[in-house]
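To assess whether ligand presence alters the predicted conformation, the chain was also submitted together with adenosine-5'-diphosphate. Input:
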Amino acid sequence: MAGTGTAHMRSGQDRVLVVDDLVVRFPAGRGQTVHAVSGVSFDLLDGETLGILGESGCGKSSAGRAVMQLPPPTSGSVLLDGTELTGLPPRALRTRRRKMQMILQDPVSSLNPRRRVKDLVAEGLSIWGTRPSRDQVESMIASVGLDPAVVWDRRPHELSGGQCQRICIARALMLDPRVLICDEPVSSLDVSVQAQILNLLEETKTRYGLSMVFIAHDLAVVKNISDRIMVMYLGKVCEVTPSAGLAASALHPYTRLLLASVPEADLGAGTADRPAPGVAGDGTVELPSPLNPPSGCRFRTRCPLATARCAEEEPLLREVGDGHHLACHNAGI
Ligand SMILES: Nc1ncnc2c1ncn2[C@@H]1O[C@H](COP(=O)(O)OP(=O)(O)O)[C@@H](O)[C@H]1O
Ligand code: SF4
Ligand SMILES: [Mg+2]
């Protein structure tokens, strides 16, 4: 049974990735369960970028990792180019998953500190038994905006955070992926470097014909790079909408709250973490726990529009505009 509705799923188009009713639960001791992702569905068209937006702890990384089968979800389906990944034997999974690469938040610690740039960039392909030529490695390093002559023999600690993220992107590209899952790829970087890495990802996407899932807690970061934005709250999808015109068209009270936390001038660039009143981190709101999520609409304990129905009945995603889907009983009617 789909938890949040699937009205936003498309059909008959060139979908690279189809994720259906993804559930991720973790055991939490004393018989308790963390409900990290509770019935999330989304699809990704060829060449599209889907932004996944939500506060820390809402299940974005768990969803991204479950799509990669690292580890596999508790339940749900993940179709990559038409092949179901869940339940594949390990070897077949490894072969298929190669077409999907992940870029993580902390580039420095995702690189082996003992290895040099030339090996770091080559090793993804080497693991598959194809040692890339020096020319191939050099041109990949150059294509992520670094000078191979300068960084060739360097180790991660001799590079900046932004340079390390460029190396991570080069490593992923060596495997000729179809899909990049970027999990907060600029959150650990200085604001001045964030825009450079976002530009690089954008260029890379076009040059290599990739599709992208771009996860972030910061609307200003996700807005420009994404074609569509999927907003998550406590393991559920609240709203899916084209990113163009988002500030005017977003309807879900949670999306509105996120928008209120971003000064308009910043909607075009990266921002530091700056919570608004009512948004987690400002100290005024006690967040509900994924150990025991609220009944009905999970946002109801913070929602200015909540009514009795919201505690009883889960709102399902319904279409409210062209490509715009909303899970709320009271907004958009
Ligand atoms: N391996 C794990 N074991 C137990 N709980 C986890 C694990 N990974 C994540 N969680 C919990 O699942 C929820 C969602 O986490 P996460 O997916 O990391 O959210 P986000 O990426 O949006 O910050 C959080 O409550 C987090 O504490
Ligand atoms: S369903 Fe109810 S509680 Fe949930 S966002 Fe809508 S109005 Fe608020
Ligand atoms: Mg995360």
